[in-house]
Specification:
245 residues; mainly beta; twelve-stranded antiparallel beta barrel; 1 helix; 58% strand
Length: 245
């Protein structure tokens, strides 16, 4: 099957999934706050531009299951094509567990939430589809409301990489810091701005800029994101959609 046909098939599957799984739900969804946990299905088309290597593109899917309002499990699987190796397949799989341990501590401090984040080397390193390392991270995120439209979700975590490569450097364990700002323009539109720094043997600067728009309140939203890796000169763009179940 040609690559163009595979991408077209992924597009069709994404469209069918997002359409067929939509259903009525009485819950009120406020996705502008990451500590609000909802069962959802996400799909996105992705393009990665590498200055020092071949570009990659494809689709990324994740399912998030909220056992209750305070506990959520995420499983994310990307399917990518590497222009340099001319291979298409599964990339590295991510599993994340998120627990809102405390809520509404004060009027402004709305949550304290520890997390566990694991990236598994399910993608082929030889085909340019995976990193060939395990990444394990554990930390905590806090939710703080400045105004009804502006919130911050800073986080700190310990990161351990089982075997370093040229992107991680020579260190196995380090610290990850983020300052995720949420800006709500109205009840339907909001933006995440998240500078991230990972300190291993060197400092790696990355970021997230993710605009979201709720097409159907409590049910369906679309999003467009830019995810730069400033240190390694990798730029990722994703365009996707979410269904809340």
């Amino acid at each position: 099957m040609k690559i163009s046909s595979k991408i077209a098939l992924l597009a069709m599957l994404l469209s069918v999934t997002l359409t067929s799984t939509a259903q009525d739900d009485a819950q009120t969804v406020d996705a502008s706050k990451p500590t609000n946990l909802y069962t959802q299905v996400n799909g996105a088309f992705e393009y990665q531009s590498h200055k020092n290597g071949p570009d990659l593109y494809g689709a990324r899917f994740n399912v998030q299951y909220a056992f209750n309002p305070d506990n959520l499990l995420l499983v994310e699987v990307p399917f990518l094509y590497n222009e340099g190796t001319d291979h298409f397949g599964i990339s590295d799989t991510r599993v994340r567990y998120f627990h809102a341990a405390k809520r509404n501590i004060t009027d402004r401090l709305i949550a304290i939430a520890p997390y566990l984040d694991i990236t598994m080397p399910t993608g082929s390193f030889e085909k340019g589809l995976g990193s060939d390392v395990w990444s394990l991270a554990a930390g905590v995120v806090a939710g703080y409301v400045f105004t009804p439209k502006i919130s911050a979700f800073p986080g700190i975590g310990i990161v351990h990489i089982t075997e370093p490569n040229k992107y991680q450097g020579d260190s196995h364990t380090g610290i990850n810091l983020q300052t995720n700002m949420s800006i709500s323009f109205n009840q339907r539109a909001f933006l995440f701005v998240n500078p991230i720094v990972t300190i291993l043997d060197r400092t790696i600067w990355t970021g997230e800029f993710n605009f979201n728009y709720m097409i159907k309140p409590n049910k369906f939203k679309v999003n467009a994101g830019y995810y730069p890796n400033f240190t390694n000169d990798i730029n990722t763009i994703r365009i996707g959609a979410t269904i809340f179940l």
